[in-house]
Design a protein that fits this description.
The protein is of the alpha+beta class and 254 residues long. Helices cover 23% and strands 26% of the residues. It has helices spanning 14-19, 60-74, 103-107, 109-129, 131-142, and strands spanning 4-7, 40-43, 49-54, 84-91, 100-101, 157-164, 185-192, 195-197, 200-202, 207-209, 216-219, 226-227, 230-232, 237-244. The strands form three sheets. Strands 1-2-3-11-7-14-6-4-5 form a nine-stranded mixed β-sheet. A three-stranded antiparallel β-sheet has the order 10-9-12, with no helix packed on it. It has a two-stranded antiparallel sheet with strand order 8-13. Helix 2 packs across helix 4 and helix 4 (109-129) crosses helix 5 (131-142). It starts with a strand and ends in a 10-residue tail after the last strand.
């Protein structure tokens, strides 16, 4: 599929980016055009990938099959964030704890079954579009007991974030931690209703991505990022899925 290739020549300084930690982002933190209409690769000045965006990469039927279960999972409100958020799949809290099935997965096995084709489909995009990072992450997953990986993929865990008219706070600037450093972030969105905003912004590189249902974003989540504010008509909904391998689960060996 034809795609656009962009290279960031002069990013913001590390000192400036560090000072943005916890800040809210908006249109002032990215340049046009916003990525979202066409498949696009963006590379850092050193040639490493910042993100690979793939337009209409998933089967809509697979996304719709997963939507009710992901909505149900996302409805568990995390008390420290002004949005709905929950992890599903498998998890290990820290180096001392055991690997475990997340509460949603344990208590909702039929719904979890409807999510698995979606996870497999996203995994296929990851494998095809960024094989170098995929091979590293898949090898670690293969060395992990199959009981703790999702459906023979490179993932152990999915974070589900849900925004709607009652919970529309943007995620502030942060860097993801706990996921495999040598792997890569993988994100897909399910959206419905009419809303604007919500773009994922990487302020250091002044790049923003606007995603739709069936799109997949591979991105360096260890770079600072956050979301633009969301504004919409009553009834809108945005479900973000972030798929990854929890680094400490390497200890859940075969």
């Amino acid at each position: 599929m034809p795609r656009i290739v962009r290279r960031v020549m002069i990013p913001e300084s590390d000192e400036w980016v560090d000072a943005q930690e916890g800040a809210e982002l908006d249109h002032r933190h990215y340049d046009l055009p916003v990525i979202g209409r066409h498949s696009t690769d963006v590379f850092k000045p050193d040639g490493s990938p910042l993100l690979l965006f793939r337009k209409r990469a998933l089967d809509p039927a697979i996304c719709e099959q997963a939507r009710p279960a992901l909505r149900k999972a996302g409805r568990a409100h995390s008390p420290h964030r002004d949005l709905y958020s929950r992890i599903i799949g498998y998890y290990r809290d820290n180096e001392q704890s055991n690997c475990r099935l997340t509460a949603f997965t344990r208590d909702n096995l039929p719904e979890w079954g409807n999510v698995l084709p979606f996870v497999r489909a996203v995994n296929t995009v990851f494998r095809r579009e960024l094989p170098s990072r995929y091979k590293v992450q898949r090898r670690i997953a293969y060395q992990t007991d199959r009981e703790w990986t999702i459906a023979d993929t490179a993932f152990t865990t999915v974070t589900v974030n849900l925004w709607d008219a009652t919970h529309d706070a943007r995620t502030k600037v942060h860097r993801d931690d706990g996921d495999l450093p040598d792997g890569f972030g993988v994100i897909s969105i399910l959206r419905s209703g009419q809303y604007s905003g919500g773009q994922l912004i990487f302020p250091k590189y002044r790049v923003a991505v606007d995603m739709d249902t069936t799109d997949v974003l591979l991105c360096d989540v260890h770079e600072a990022h956050g979301n633009a504010p969301l504004i919409g008509e009553p009834g809108w909904e945005r479900i973000a899925t972030i798929l990854y391998y929890v680094t400490s689960m390497r200890e859940c060996a075969r």
